[in-house]
Amino acid sequence: MTPKVRLTAKERGDEVLRAAVRAFAASGYEGTKTDEIARLAGVSQPYVIRLFGTKQQLFLAAIRSVCDRIEEIFREAAAESPELSALGRNYERLLAERELLLVLLHGFSASGDPVIGDCVRERFGSIYTLIRDLTGATPEQAREFLSAGMLMTVMSAMQLLGPDPIPMPWAAEIAKTFDN
Amino acid sequence: MTPKVRLTAKERGDEVLRAAVRAFAASGYEGTKTDEIARLAGVSQPYVIRLFGTKQQLFLAAIRSVCDRIEEIFREAAAESPELSALGRNYERLLAERELLLVLLHGFSASGDPVIGDCVRERFGSIYTLIRDLTGATPEQAREFLSAGMLMTVMSAMQLLGPDPIPMPWAAEIAKTFDN
DNA sequence: CCTTGTTGTAATTGACTGATAACAAGCCTG
DNA sequence: CAGGCTTGTTATCAGTCAATTACAACAAGG
């Protein structure tokens, strides 16, 4: 089957990367098959591998991509109002782009792999540092902010937060406390 | 090879379950091979399957096991002093038994699977409820407590917290804020 | 002692999966 | 328009892995 349209390797790589983010968000590192990513991107599986070398490198690219986007969201939010509480309101944006937090979570889970662990630690550290730099928050405040983000992340993974949540009374009770 | 000692199915099942907790903590649901669990438990791989039916059911058993232990730790802590701040000091115990938080984290990650998701939601909800019941904390306080736990969990997965942490200045800065 | 249920293994299988190789078709450039 | 570079596919492999089957050893009770 000849491809419908020919793109440059960079353009196609971007499309595959977007597909990879969606797929990894849904199934994690080990659980996602390169075949599925290829299907989502509309290309053949071997081409996915050729574009990124290995599945691991593709996952690393996905991690970097979502972390870039997370930092971008925080920067935009801080540009409007550089207070930590204002930044907090922008967790909504992160929850809306559900893949961001989910890929990050799967990054944490896959940190047992040294290569992935190095990448995740570096990116998580730079997010922490960015938050402190943008808002001037103390370590305590920044930690509290990050803590709330992590709870949102795991609740998002359990489908208790974000679009179309599974209704659970206790989860709704927790969700309400985020609205401050 | 004939086994060294014969145990009842229940005893052997417990040993396999302990091995499974260790293995799943290290590599997650998809990343852990039943073969590795068998090796850790000192039995053959088919026997692991026969004892638990499927790898999924073994993972569910591991989730239930660590959640039972987490609730037990909280109950013991509350028996000494039923204040939330006192309970917080017992996160150290959770960090010491590193597998507890790690298996839970991998449970969150694997929540995309409906069966696992159901189990994880139920157990996480009952932990939240237990915390509220034991301490009489408000939803806000309980959420804050859980939030801190989730940050500890992911930092533990990144090997930034717990025994033998990878030294990172920013991570140490965060870790210090937990000591209150 | 024998026979029946239980604990356990060895052998195997069938499906899957990441990666490689070989090839094809399109596009630019001289 | 010829030649080479880029984009993309098909075919295939070598390894892995959960699960099944069949069998073996052992213990306990009659």
TrEMBL record, chains A, B:
The keyword Kinase does not apply. Residues 10-70 form the HTH tetR-type domain. SUPFAM superfamilies: Homeodomain-like. InterPro entries: Homeodomain-like_sf, HTH-type_TetR-like_transc_reg, HTH_TetR. PROSITE patterns: HTH_TETR_2. Residues 33-52 bind DNA. Keywords: DNA-binding. It comes from the Bacteria. This is TetR family transcriptional regulator. It comes from Kribbella karoonensis.
